[in-house]
Amino acid sequence: MSNFCWSVGRFREALRLAEQACELNPLMPAARLHAAQMRTYVGDYQTSIRMHQELYRRWPRNFTILISLLNFSCSLDFWDAYNQAVGEIEHFEGWQAQHLRATVRYAEALGSADPERRLELLGRYKALMAKTGTLPLNYLDGLSHLGLAEEALNLAEQASFDHMFDPDGPLPSGSFPGTIMGRWSALNKTPRFVDLCDRLGLCSYWTQSNRWPDCVEWTPYDFKAEVRRRIGV
User: Fold this and answer.
1) The predicted structure's pLDDT at residue 232
2) Whole-prediction pTM value?
3) What is the spatial distance between Cα 83 and Cα 58, in angstroms, rounded to a whole number?
4) Which of 26, 125, 144, 183 is most buried, taking the most CB atoms under 10 A from its CB?
């Protein structure tokens, strides 16, 4: 349920449910990690990074905890935490090492003053979309951190998200829509963002359920009005 609330932008509710899951099973790394992640989404960045660090010390060599720690720490400018953790990637192999190296490429582009590093990453994502026809939503959010929000939304317009609606397909995983609704993301600061939400089925959900995402509080435009306009309500 916490994952569901995260995916539709109800972050405070997602945090409450994640904390309840931790009470039910305090030895479950995934529940503890999700609580730490939801701390980020409600704006408690410092606590989230500290929780990530504590979790990795408790469960060392846990790939999911490490990649979350690296992604959040570099994206939110906790570079000391990133630098302390990045050396841990040497303990991983195979597909896990591949994903961790991709995170390092993103972090290096984010921390570099060279615009070519950012354009190089944009080129990688364009090539991936040309090959697969889609892009994970967290990649689009990453581009917004690099100052390429418009380019990210351009790619989103070209991408297909049909796989998210396939009941026989894989779980969305990193493609959960909540990842693009954080208060730090430049994607949701422009009304174009609502077009992407509509393609993900979110606009219909929000209006029919009247359960609105937390991002209505920090978008610099009338988010509800834009959503209603997109679906003709």
Assistant:
1) 87
2) 0.92
3) 19
4) 144
Which residue has 């953790």 as its token pair?
A: 85
Token output for 30: 């995934």
**pLDDT for 60:** 95
The answer to whether residues 45 and 77 touch, using CB atoms and an 8 Å cutoff, is no
**Integer distance in angstroms from the first to the last C-alpha of the chain?**
28
**Could you give the CA distance from residue 180 to residue 97 in angstroms, rounded to a whole number?**
25
Q: Where are the domains of the chain?
A: 114-233
CB-based burial label for 209 (10 Å; 0-12, 13-18, 19+)? exposed
From the list 39, 41, 43, 42, the residue with the least C-alpha distance to 53 is: 39
Q: Which of 140, 230, 121 is nearest to 182 (CA)?
A: 140
How many CB atoms neighbour CB 225 within 10 A? Answer: 11
